[in-house]
Write a structure and sequence with these properties.
The complex is a heterodimer. By secondary structure, chain A is mainly β. In chain A, 0% of the residues lie in helices and 46% in strands. Classes of the chains: A mainly beta, B mainly beta.
Chain lengths: 112, 115
């Protein structure tokens, strides 16, 4: 799986958009970008994933650059409950072996 | 409600006393796996299972055993726990649809302390 690089920490004001960047310059054509988050010491929670096109769901939006070497997770209106560690993961689907490789992630602090 | 349930949530045990952490999912998922999380080391996969009676080692399998006799259950067994297995453990499950993995669902975690 391709390696990802994320800033170790970010701050965001409550109600503002949180934009979390991720670099994955070695990504290959059949690798997906996944985002998970972990609130305190709870189990990681799936947020969103994409291959080429931008994606949006009820939690967030995912913007993938045209060359697919980087992406941005957008939380449109951050709340205090969005304070968590956010993990960007690049995965290749083999239909068999299944592992999520978690890096250090970005620790997002949402403040009032 | 779709969920992965781990038990116990907290456990303090002594070195060498066998223990089992249970994991159950109600989503009929084929894939299940165990991770451990340690400060500075992140989440690392211990074992995984692609279906009933099919298991394989992850990155840090030493000192652990697993079994997958039923699709919904994937217990983690520590035959002789040691202090270096003190950690936060997570079970996860996911489905495979036409070869494409869906998102993984994680349990709430088991905080294990071995003294």
């Amino acid at each position: 799986d391709a390696k990802t690089t994320q800033p170790p920490s970010m701050d965001c004001a409550e109600g503002r958009a949180a934009n979390l960047p991720c670099n994955h310059s070695t990504i290959s054509g059949n690798e997906y970008v996944y985002w998970y988050r972990q609130i305190h010491s709870q189990g990681p929670q799936y947020i969103i994933h994409g291959l080429k096109n931008n994606e949006t769901n009820e939690m967030a939006s995912l913007i993938i650059t045209e060359d697919r070497k980087s992406s941005t997770l957008i939380l449109p209106h951050a709340t205090l409950r969005d304070t968590a560690v956010y993990y960007c993961i690049v995965r290749w689907f083999s239909g068999g072996y299944n592992k999520l490789i978690f890096g250090a992630g970005t620790r997002l602090a949402v403040h009032p | 409600e779709a969920q992965v349930t781990q038990n116990p949530r907290y456990l303090i045990t002594v070195t060498g006393k066998k223990l089992t952490v249970t994991c159950s999912q109600n989503m009929n998922h084929e894939y299940m796996s165990w991770y451990r999380q340690d400060p500075g080391l992140g989440l690392r996969q211990i074992y995984y299972s692609m279906n009933v009676e099919v298991t394989d080692k992850g990155d840090v399998p030493e000192g652990y055993k697993v079994s997958r006799k039923e699709k919904r259950n994937f217990p983690l067994i520590l035959e002789s726990p040691s202090p270096n297995q003190t950690s936060l453990y997570f079970c996860a499950s996911s489905s495979v649809d036409r070869g494409l993995d869906t998102e993984a669902f994680f349990g709430q975690g088991t905080r294990l302390t071995v003294v």
